[in-house]
Amino acid sequence: MAYLDHIHACNNANLSRYARFRIGDLPVGAIRSEFASALTALGDSFIRDENGEYGFGPHIKTIDARNQTLIEATEALCQQGVIKHLHGEKFDIRNRLSDDPLCQLDRFAMPYFGCRSWGVHMNGFVRKADGIHMWIAKRALDKPTYPGMLDNMVAGGQPTGLGFRENMIKECAEEAGIPANLAEKVVAIGTVSYLYETDEGLKPDVMVNFDLELPEEFVPHCADGEVEQFDLLPIAEVAEIVRNRFDFKFNCALVVIDFLIRHGYLTADNEPSYCELVTGLHRSLEP
Fold it and tell me: What predicted TM-score, i.e. pTM, was given to this entire model?
């Protein structure tokens, strides 16, 4: 196994299985044929055009109308068992940060429509005499997604109505009990993107990432029940886990690899796939 295997695992999508989903003339997602059939069977709120692409019916013209249509459709499809679960938290539908949101969709429904999701991830680390140590979270065993897997110290989806830094600081308190005076020291360090296919559909997602250097005496605690435990591990041990196993939740391994590159642990001299890793962490997500 190699670090590059995580890049490949997170970019496993077979796009030939999908048809575009548009809002007006703008492609914003992609859906599988079986989901498309269930969607259009709901009525005239969703249509298939002459090009075999999907979108809202012509009478659905405003953000409010799109939002209400999506609420009704996702609830109906959940009742039918087409959508497994709904979360209740809404994500904005937009292709780029500079775009105004076109509508909002339940976060658990995003893959079914193949719309881009945004999230925040944070590497919490400590500098000791023997080098960098990283705080690693183990996801709670009763989490509905990826239970028991390793995770970044703090991470969360990007809901409607919050800024990225604002959301990151909120998640620090909720997931790791990090007080505001420490959380406000988070440093924005870039993004990681990937095109991942799940049983539900497509995830063309972007993680907006932060580093937070923490004092040695600080010990995180789980405040919301989503983490089983936190462990402070030497960076070499973290790198070894990522290098040899799939113990981390699929996208969290990419955030760790990015950290290893930025902090000089992985270099062009010691990692044969260095260039492929650097480019692979930033998958083009043009719809």
Answer: 0.94
Domain 4-11+119-280, CATH among 3.90.79.10, 3.90.105.10, 3.40.50.1820, 3.40.50.10490: 3.90.79.10
Q: CA neighbours within 13 Å on the CB side: how many for 164?
A: 18
For residue 10, which phi and psi values (nearest 5 degrees)?
-85, -5
For 57-71, the pLDDT digits (tens) are: 999 999 999 999 999
Q: Give the C-alpha separation, 135 to 153, whole Å.
A: 6
Q: What is the pLDDT of residues 233-250, one digit of tens each?
A: 999 999 999 999 999 999
Q: How deeply is 243 buried, as exposed, middle or buried, from its count of CB atoms within 10 A (0-12, 13-18, 19+)?
A: middle
Please list the residue range(s) of the chain that carry CATH number 3.90.79.10. Answer: 4-11+119-280
Residue 68: exposure state from Cβ atoms within 10 A (0-12, 13-18, ≥19): middle
